[in-house]
Write a structure and sequence with these properties.
CATH topology of the largest domain: Neuraminidase
Structural class: mainly beta
Distance between the termini: 32 Å
InterPro entries: F-box-assoc_dom_typ1, F-box-assoc_interact_dom, F-box-like_dom_sf, F-box_dom, SCF_F-box_component
Strand content: over 45%
Helix content: under 10%
Pfam family, one: FBA_1
Largest sheet: 6 strands, antiparallel
Oligomer: single chain
Protein name: F-box domain-containing protein
Radius of gyration: 21 Å
Length: about 375
């Protein structure tokens, strides 16, 4: 067909195909294989998907069982959060569950932890069934925090780590080592400290990626200003750290009591839960990203029902997704204040929810590992 149709028209046809069909097309001929695996096609396909008005909004859901099984699926962004597709999980961790660092442009970043040490990271695209295994250069204890995101300027996916060799009771004595992994380069490199400030967090793997910046809730220690909470950001393109001030009422709240979430794919929000006669979430939304004066408080209140304080998982449209103490997932409408049981259960404290965008990222990486499934399960 390529002998009779111009390449631009062929690309337009290919852009409309489902991901699995695109992968099959790589086996048709060398010309199509070369085209589909070119960085230019993969990048253009991604941009078409992002800008399309008719693609389905999807969420990645990870649930864990008591038998240490992990189930990954894509969910529709509809009222009942219906399942769209089950994802085959090709990895095994005999000691604990994987930690989900985040999801960006179809790539899922996982961390494998053994005896409280991170022994490997994985960039995984389940739709094209390829992954890259990444060994850390520094053997990091859990006294570290990690972020994953996309550098749009370099068309690169990066992983940033800050590792403290030990936990000091004096925050100002912590001297974290900082390193960055680039998928394009296939290696780690050090990131120099640009300021004498010290940061720490209780959240370890919890982060939010938005506008080219990965964000954490962190303690900021300074000999003149003392210790208080901030949103710490790392710009994936400029490779510099930045700070965003929190509302003053959150300055001295323990970071483990706060959840940092992406809000409507346009800004960030911070959730704080309280429990008196009822459960109440205070959700601080930065209405205009980067403008401190735009922090606005929303409130969600509902009966406790003996379940304790739920854990905030994510925000979709005008709903806060939460995990109850016993593992059931509920959705709270920020306008009507109604709470609905989504009838989804996972092992408590291990459920992950994040937005997901279908892509062919990794298709061009020759060093990525491929896997297939047959009727008997995973095959090499």
């Amino acid at each position: 067909m390529s002998d009779f149709l111009p390449e631009d028209l062929i690309q337009e046809i290919l852009f409309k195909l489902p991901i699995k069909s695109l992968v099959r097309c790589t086996s048709l001929c060398r010309t199509w294989n070369s085209l589909l695996k070119s960085p230019a096609f993969i990048s253009k396909h991604l941009q078409r998907t992002i800008s399309s008005t008719d693609h389905q909004s999807l969420f990645l859901l990870r649930l864990c069982s008591k038998e240490r099984e992990e189930q990954y699926s894509l969910r529709l962004d509809n009222q009942d959060f219906n399942e769209h597709m089950q994802l085959h999980f090709p990895f095994e961790s005999f000691e604990s569950y994987f930690h989900v660092i985040g999801s960006c442009n179809g790539l899922i970043c996982l961390a494998k932890v053994i005896q409280r040490f991170t022994v490997s990271f994985i960039f995984w695209n389940p739709l094209i069934q390829k992954y890259v295994n990444i060994e850390p250069r520094i053997l990091g204890h859990l006294y570290s925090f990690v972020g994953f995101g996309y550098d749009s300027r370099a068309n690169d996916y990066k992983l940033i780590r800050m590792v403290n060799s030990q936990k000091s009771k004096f925050l100002s004595e912590n001297f974290p080592k900082m390193e960055l992994y680039s998928l394009n380069e296939g290696s780690w490199r050090s990131i120099p400290q640009t300021a004498p400030l010290r940061y720490d967090t209780d959240q370890h793997f919890s982060s939010a990626f938005l506008n080219g910046v990965v964000h954490w809730i962190a303690n900021r220690a300074d000999q003149h200003e003392g210790i208080h909470n901030v949103v710490l950001g790392f710009d994936m393109s400029d490779e510099i750290f930045l700070e965003i001030a929190l509302p003053s009422c959150l300055d001295n709240v323990r970071p483990s009591c706060l959840s940092l979430l992406v809000y409507k794919e346009s800004s960030i929000s911070v959730c704080q839960a309280s429990f008196l006669s009822s459960v109440q979430f205070h959700i601080w939304v930065m209405k205009e990203y980067g403008v401190v004066e735009s922090w606005t408080k929303l409130v969600l209140t509902f009966g406790a029902q003996g379940e304790g304080i739920p854990r905030a998982l994510g925000i979709r449209k005008e709903e806060l997704l939460m995990e109850k103490k016993r593992g059931w997932i509920v959705s709270g409408d920020l306008e009507s204040q109604q709470v609905r049981d989504l009838r989804i259960w996972g092992e408590p404290f291990h459920t992950f929810i994040g937005s997901y965008l279908e892509s062919v990222v990794l298709l061009d990486k020759s060093k990525a590992t491929s896997y297939v499934y047959n009727s008997n399960g995973l095959a090499a």
